[in-house]
Amino acid sequence: MTEPKPRVPRSVSDPVPDIPQIGADQKSEASTIYSHYRSGLSQHRTRMSDHRTDLSEDRSEMSMRRTGMSIHRTRMAADRTMMSEIRTALSLIGFGFTLYEAFRRLDDGGVLASSTSPRNFGLILVLLGIAILLGGIWRHVQFALQLRHTRKAMIAEGLIHGESPYPVSVSLVVAVALMLVGVAAAANIVLGIHLFG
User: Fold this and answer.
1) CA nearest neighbour of 133 among 172, 168, 75
2) DSSP labels for 28-95?
3) Rounded distance, CA 155 to CA 139, Å?
4) pLDDT score of 1
5) Cα separation of 126 and 94, whole Å?
6) What span, in angstroms and rounded, lies between the C-alpha atoms of 32 and 109?
7) What pTM did the predictor assign?
């Protein structure tokens, strides 16, 4: 990563030249004195213009950094959205599987009359959790690819530096793993295969 350039001071300490006072004995030289004064003003304006240019370049550099950081903030917002979908799906899958297991054990113990309603309800909750994950993963991947494309285009146009890497989304990896757990839970309910002991 390159070192940031030192910031340009906001003001120039070079004062505006004072208006010359023409005495009675200097009337014949007045035009020359005022000409030198105008040259001094012109030089002062040139220095101010150069300073404004330096400030503008400094602001452009800061603007590029802010734009680059906004890409990362947008990506983190997408990760937070994915995490909220993971929480919702985990709640549905966990509650659906727990409901199924509780009623299955009560049925095995002869406490309740055999009924498929708890099994079906638990399965529906697990499938809803899997559906939320599938939709969230699809949307997250689609958005991440679009954001990567936008970032590459902005780097190519020189709008941002692009020095920092674009890391893999951990929330996406967790979502895929949870979806596999949800599929295993659904297989457990439908096929009666006790994958979880």
Assistant:
1) 172
2) GGHHHHHHHHHHHHHHHHHHHHHHHHHHHHHHHHHHHHHHHHHHHHHHHHHHHHHHHHHHHHHHHHHH
3) 24
4) 44
5) 8
6) 114
7) 0.62
